[in-house]
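Tokens for chain A. Residues wanted.
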């Protein structure tokens, strides 16, 4: 049984191995990854639910799918080239923070689509991307009925605190006391509440309560950091 030595690997030129991929196959893979990238960008734009939409991130999804396809085609052509590519990619560092959790899913989707397309598994790339897109579109339409808010109340005296908590208990289905701050000028309560989008009338009752200095209701993303 013949063994493959390092010299045998070196004797195989990149040009000879690239002939395994015709120009037509390469063009089809690159065009298809571009189309899938456009589809990912469309789904991302339609399902985005954050505050600040970044078109640059959407375009980067297209570029990521195409570039990944190009890399997979390249490393499939030669063993030495694949080792060099791994070494080059190992020094890459991403400095931009991913703010939305769903952005990670879209990044992984774009990379996976590029890998599958570059590997020549075109049916998997097409049907897999369509399936993922449909799932994301369906679940993005279903919005939660209650939204998280942070209620910050400044007041003086125990009676005011009791009255505020009674109003919250009678007006809000779910609430959690996050912090209580005592100072020489009064007391501050920070409470997480869940409300329908347009339901904030109870805030007027709290503001009108004797001893309450101010009441602020702030929408947030569900992550409270102390």
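Reply:
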């Amino acid at each position: 049984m013949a063994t493959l030595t390092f010299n045998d690997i070196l004797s195989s030129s990149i040009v000879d191995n690239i002939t395994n991929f015709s120009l037509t196959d390469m063009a089809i893979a690159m065009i298809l990854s571009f189309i899938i990238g456009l589809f990912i960008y469309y789904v991302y734009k339609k399902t985005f639910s954050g505050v600040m939409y970044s078109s640059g991130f959407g375009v980067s999804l297209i570029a990521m799918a195409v570039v990944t396809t190009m890399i997979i085609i390249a490393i499939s052509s030669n063993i030495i080239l694949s080792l060099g590519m791994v070494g080059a990619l190992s020094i890459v560092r991403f400095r931009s923070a991913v703010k939305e959790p769903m952005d990670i899913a879209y990044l992984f989707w774009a990379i996976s689509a590029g890998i599958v397309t570059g590997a020549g598994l075109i049916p998997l790339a097409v049907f897999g991307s369509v399936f993922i897109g449909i799932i994301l579109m369906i679940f993005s339409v279903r919005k939660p009925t209650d939204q998280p808010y942070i209620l910050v109340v400044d007041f003086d005296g125990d009676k005011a605190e009791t009255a505020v908590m009674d109003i919250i208990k009678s007006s809000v289905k779910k609430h959690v006391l996050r912090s209580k701050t005592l100072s020489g000028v009064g007391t501050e309560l920070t409470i997480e509440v869940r409300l329908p989008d347009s339901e904030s009338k109870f805030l007027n009752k709290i503001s009108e309560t004797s001893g309450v200095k101010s009441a602020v209701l702030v929408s947030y993303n569900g992550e409270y950091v102390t």
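The two ends are 66 Å apart (CA to CA). The chain is about 55% helix and 15% strand.
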